[in-house]
Amino acid sequence: QVRLVESGGGLVQPGGSLRLSCAASGSIFSINFMDWYRQAPGKPRELVAAFTSGGTTNYADSVKGRFTLSGDNAKKTIYLQMNSLKPEDTAVYYCHYGLRGAISSWGQGTQVTVSS
Q1: Which of 109, 111, 114, 113 has its CA nearest to residue 36?
Q2: pLDDT tens digit string along 64-109?
Q3: Distance of alpha carbon 12 from alpha carbon 101, whole angstroms
């Protein structure tokens, strides 16, 4: 019903930057219910960035100060600006849309590789 398509991943050197986008199609309630996860090889999937009900953003401790979450409700699109990238940021990044106990949709993921 809700389709999510990520873009912007790729190969970047340490210290570089990437901007991920996630465009939603179909009916969504709000981009406030969209967020970003990532999964590195051999690691569990973790929440990276999310909007809060108070109009702010929350980030995993490992990315605070380096990543910025934003969105455009009219375009049904969210973004993740990633700066000062480190090798440990290497992962598949997934866009998610979910309402607790009701709806959960995932994109296919986009690969981010940080390497020299």
Answers
A1: 109
A2: 999 999 999 999 999 999 999 999 999 999 999 998 878 899 999 9
A3: 37
Are the CB atoms for 58 and 50 separated by under 8 Å? yes
H-run or E-run covering 79 = strand 77-82
Q: Which amino acid belongs to residue 68?
A: T
DSSP string for residues in the chain: --EEEEE--EEE-TT--EEEEEEEES--S-GGGEEEEEE-TTS--EEEEEE-TTS-EEE-TTTTTTEEEEEETTTTEEEEEE-S--GGG-EEEEEEEEETTTEEEE---EEEEE--
- The closest of 70, 75, 7, 66 to 35, measured between CA atoms, is 70
